[in-house]
Amino acid sequence: MTPTQSHSLDRERPLPPAVAFDPLSPAQLADPYELYAAARREQPVFYSEPYELWVVTRYEDVVAVTKDHATFSSAGAVRSSPRPPAPAVAAALAEGYPLSPTLTDSDEPMHGRLRGLVNTAFTHRRVARLEPLIRATSDRLIDHFCGRGQADVIDEFGWSLPLAAIAAILGMPEDDLPELHHWSYQWLQLLQATDPEADLVRYAQGVVAMQRYFVRALEDRARRPREDLASALLSARIEGEQPLTVEEAMRVAMNLVIAGHVTVTRAIGNAVVLLANRPEAQAQLRGDPSVVQAVVEETLRLESPAQGLFRTTTREVTVGGVTLPKGARVMVHYGAANRDGAVFGDPDRMDPERSELMRHLAFGKGIHVCVGAPLARLELRVALPRLFERLPGLRLDPERPPERDTIFFARGFKHVFVNWDVQSGPGAARV
């Protein structure tokens, strides 16, 4: 497949070399933003042969794609590869339920039905009631390591906090959190599909185990409803629409657990790394709640946990001066768009006071904007101040640098090792 410049005045001229898009390379894992800036200047829509993807990097083009859901189908929105799974992987998945449709990878009218029913159950009021639990869980987790002066923020805090919140709202037992976390990561690795086949089979088996876990829980709710989101999903009603089946509610619950904690885990790690050497930004986290919110939003813009999702063209279409054929796989790159200087002044600088802050795309845009964004924002508004309040002098461990995760459509860390100044005396444990 070769890019076609639809508006070039000199079609005879050869195209520039393809952008060296290699998001799993050590250099781009460390800092991909110079490459994205060059792409926005020179090839804002480019084709990546290794990933069989067209990558859209400019803010204006990303927004246009996400809003045109008739031309850019969300089917397969979280699958990085267009190729069908290997037979052994497909056989393992066949032991469970179809992976689609979900909120993320469905088109209209299915998406509207799912979104409407989920919004009926997953209300802002239900999310707001979680703040005391999120605050208490944050402190309980920090209690375990605050006296040591060193910790891995991801392993000991980052994944546990958001998973505890989403599990609580769904009504899942706290003892099940480690297994839910393990299955969630296997789901991501399965979708990236870059590991050996034997590993992909193992990931598929984990995904099926997660499906069965939620089906059992939802069947129990159907018999004995409770005051939790799992029960609310089954009881949600919209006039003229069929209620969610157990299978559909299972996919929604999995979607919420996986996206709802993996994204926030990455956001926590990204924020700690960004803020560790910025005492002025840390001070802002101890101030007015509106300022705290601005710091959260700016960290999401600078280091978007979801770097992008995928679309498939339903017809030939021109994006950013490049004609894409029908059936083309497209990555809408939120991470590149969020540093577009045409929208964000001095885009690589951290500035929570920027006027254009809320235009960032960390949670997507259009009908597929993240349904869990209010919960994610609440978790970050609580978690980040508590970390920097209770761990004075928080800084990266100079002997153990952060370790990047290797999911190419996401950006975050497997491990973030930090040190801080241990306080002593009464009241040191809680501020």
Descriptive overview:
With 431 residues, this protein is an alpha+beta fold. The protein is 47% helix and 10% strand. The chain is built from 17 helices and 13 strands. It has helices at residues 26-30, 33-42, 59-67, 87-93, 110-121, 124-128, 131-145, 153-158, 160-170, 177-192, 197-223, 229-235, 246-275, 279-284, 289-302, 334-337, 373-390; strands at 4-5, 45-48, 53-56, 72-73, 150-152, 308-313, 317-319, 322-324, 329-333, 395-396, 403-404, 413-415, 417-419. The strands form 4 sheets. The protein has a 5-stranded mixed sheet with strand order 2-3-9-6-4. Strand 7 (317-319) and strand 8 form a beta hairpin. The longest helix is centred in the middle third of the chain and has 30 residues, at 246-275. The termini are far apart.
Outline of the structure:
With 431 residues, the chain is α+β, with helices and mostly antiparallel strands. α10 crosses α13.
How would you describe this structure in keywords?
431 residues, alpha+beta, five-stranded mixed β-sheet, 17 helices, 47% helix, globular
